[in-house]
Amino acid sequence: MAKKVQLKAKARAGSGRGAAKRLRAEGVVPGVIYGAHTKPLNVAVAVEELEKVLHDATSENVLVDLQIDEGGTTKNRLALIQEVQHHPYEDVVLHIDFHEVLATEKLHTRVPVRPVGEPAGVKTGGGILEYVMRELHVECLPQDLPDVIEVNVEKLEIGQSIHIGDIAPPAGVALLDSKGQTVFLVVAPITEEELAAMTEAAAAPSAEPEVITAKGEEGEEGAVVEGEAAPKAEAGKAEAKAPAAGAAGKAPAAGAGGKAPAAGAPGKAPAGAPGKAPAGAAGKVPAAAAGKGDAKPAAKAAGKPEAKK
Predict the structure, then answer these.
(1) Would you say 177 and 163 are in contact if contact means Cβ atoms under 8 Å apart?
(2) CATH class of 4-102
(3) Which residues of the chain have pLDDT under 50?
(4) What's the pTM?
(5) Minimal CA–CA distance to 149: which of 165, 136, 166?
(6) Angle 268-272-277 (CA atoms, 0-180°, nearest 5)?
(7) Are the C-beta atoms of 281 and 251 separated by less than 8 Å?
(8) What ranges do the domains of the chain cover?
């Protein structure tokens, strides 16, 4: 059963980081005690006495008879050490929490479970004992709280196991976990072939690169679609420009149909060429000349008689 130890404490009024720092400088550890039936109370414990209690503890469940000095009056309160806060890199206790319990009220907590003996399957068959659970959820009175629950595993063969329902708890203790839950299990040893297969599986590439590759392929497909759309757009632009430049065998749009270009003679054709394109446009007209040189020759021709040509 859990050993009840006595520990002296003193009620403190100050709280906060500054007050706690001053207490630690004086060799005192700040703490708090709380429970279901009382209000939280800030306390202070001498660091030497607290370290002795923690050093002598044989289990995580330490039952403490806390003697609290409240203004000259000492009150005894039964509590479990709930949490101890240590400095990150120094061997210093920063804070301690006490959880008050009643001697007549059952409590729920977890107790370590420990195998006793060597399983037959391990001793003769080379099997391995596996710990499926390392703590058991129990219900009991504070005075019945065990430090540890021991289970005999000597009769276990390879493939056999012990469940919660197979464990006989100490007197006054009830096990709250499911009766079908496995606690200890003896498994067969790993063969060389299985070890080689496990090593090969561990060395094989994981599925993660495949996911990354799949995303890359999606991106490539998107790039191809965009690449196809670009040539189509360029082709459409080229087709749109081709008629403006003028096709082979046709006069420019500005000079066709018997009319001079707009810059030369608005509304009338040249005097010597009714119904025909300008003299320089007979046959085929180069694309470069169609957009630039038509307007000036037309202007000259409109102002001079054709006889002089």
Answers:
(1) no
(2) mainly beta
(3) 215-309
(4) 0.58
(5) 136
(6) 65
(7) yes
(8) 4-102, 108-201, 205-237
